[in-house]
Amino acid sequence: MMTIKKRVAVIGAGITLFRRRLKETGKELSYHASKMALDSAEMNLSEIESVVMGTAPDAFDGIHMKSENLLDGAGGTGRPYMRPFVGGGTGVFSPIAGWWHVASGLFDTCLVVAEEKMSPVQPHPQTAFRTIWDPFTTRPLHPNLVWIFALEMNRYMTVHNIPKEHIAEVAVKNKGNALDHPSAQLAAKITVEDVMNSETMVWPVQRLDISPPSDGAAALILASEEVAKKYTDSPVWIDGVGWSLDSSYWTNRDLYFPQYVAEAAKMAYKMAKIDDPPKEVSFAEPYDPFTYKELHHMEGLLLAKKGEAPKLTAEGVTQRDGKLPICPSGGLLGVGNPIAAAGLMKCCEAFWQLRNEAGKRQVDGAETGVCQAWGDLMQVGTVTVFRR
Amino acid sequence: MSEKMKEVPGIYLRDAELKAEDAITFKWRPNAKYAWSGGIAYSRYLAELKNGRIIGRACRECGRILVPPRMFCDTCFRATDEWVYVKDTGTINTYSVSYLDADANRIKEPILVAVIDLDGASEGIGILHYVDPKVDPKDLHIGMKLKAVWKPEKERIGSVTDIAYFEPLKEG
Amino acid sequence: MSFDKNTNPLKLHHLVGDMEADYIYTPGVAGDKFFKALRDDEKFLATHCESCNHTYMPPRMYCERCFSKLDKWVEAESTGVVDTYSLAHEDRDGEKLAEPVIVAFIRIDKTDGGIIHQLGGVDHESVKIGMKVKAVLKDKSKRTGGLNDIDHFAPA
Ligand SMILES: [Zn+2]
Ligand SMILES: [Zn+2]
Q: Which domain covers residue C80, as residue numbers?
């Protein structure tokens, strides 16, 4: 069924600060990330043949059709340019779209940019989520987005009998890891008690279980094998991609397990010829907008058996120096969550880790990294496998 | 970020700068209005709610009874076959206790919400709804039986809110 | 399933609502400098890319052609040339205006860009493409920082 014409490499990456509000416009942020990525690959814009722009709902920036607005900042002027969109999953989906631009043989280079500016929407970015619901069955109940996470978290905790303290360990680890990330918004040294004592937002979700809303951008440069070798001796390969969506009727699914992430992971592992993910993956960057989501997604990524990710976390296996480091970047909980840019930040981290450029964040012996994002109406899994 | 990069671009704009007297900001409220029509399945669903009944659609191929009703089955990808009434009782699939309103403002009296698997609908075909706010959250548990509390007939408008909330089912 | 020809959604079972949210936008690095210079000093600032020999109006902090960072600011003129124009008889919600408004794209002198704005002091019989115009700013006390600090462009 599938013919991959070219192996695809990542040869550059760039990122901005992540903050609650940045002075730059979305275009300017896109420019900064893109320019850093180009500079790191020692490339000029004129060498870019195609551009993929990943950015989540227009309702955050408050600019309808915002990818058209962002075009020039992403280097898209006069080039084949597109915006793939799968809500919160967009950050990891955009390099997948970039991958097929190159793997198909259509282009030799592709600049992948992701941007989010969540600060314009008032009184809170949550307001933008008021209008994602079905107007007949759900919107009349005035849901807050956090409800569905809380519902999912309760189901997950109850089915597996998971203590909240084990889930809280994720916030401690990620905010701690983020202390070494120069872009980080909420890096901190905290304890499990701090998480357990933080105010309850929507039970069982507490303040320190949640990632912040942010402004920010990130970028990657993809190239075909022949072209990559002209620019670098240490390309990072995209060896597997996968994505899958489950039913939009989220109340019709069993929320304790993200089947769609498992489907996406199986697709990506098959392509990357990975048979035993926990053994063959050196580190992973699963999507962690909430503490429990990291655990949920580790299980979806088949890196832990169902219900066992919390135990592995409590035992320290997922620490940066553990057997299976998870979110060595600091994740969304620590670095911040400018939706699409946060997903691409994870792919940038995989690139830096596999090039041995992550500095204090470096994971020893990193050979294979897996990045994953999640979103839409809590129904999409997007997965990318990177190798050195 | 790569250790080879020295500076992270971006200028943090703090609240004080945003609110400074000489700051340049543009305020905007989109003023678009919408009229959504309910379609075949939801129109009947909402009309039945006004009558105090919950209706679904059945797919003969997979045997599922879908609530809210749909005119096609998304797994078999064929038209559903018939209208089926389901009960207004069900089981908590999961629940939570919200101290936030729709704009993320804190509220004192929490909102109790649950995914409820209705009796008569297929397993796992749940709906989202409120639980009686008088219930102590500590008394809720997954697997608990609930029953719909309907608004008085005169107040019903053909909406999911024609059910005020679900309350614990009294035995017998 | 049935497919009828009713095109009025209000005749069917329907709900009405909105997609409302409030926004506060900030103009960014280049925009902030541009609007402050216009508001406080009545100056039109542009950025110049040396490698492309291109002057951006409104100014940008980067060149979209060669992707250089632009930090060379130049003062442009408050005059320009009508590049094209149109007569608007309706406002943005489709309501009829008492008087048609002349909307024009004005190429700003000494730059390669321009601004879309209204023309004043000229009627729609005598407006012409190629006409020289000059920005008329609002009274300083009425300026808020933004394109509306320019009241209109009038024949120079
Ligand atoms: Zn079926
Ligand atoms: Zn240039």
A: 28-155
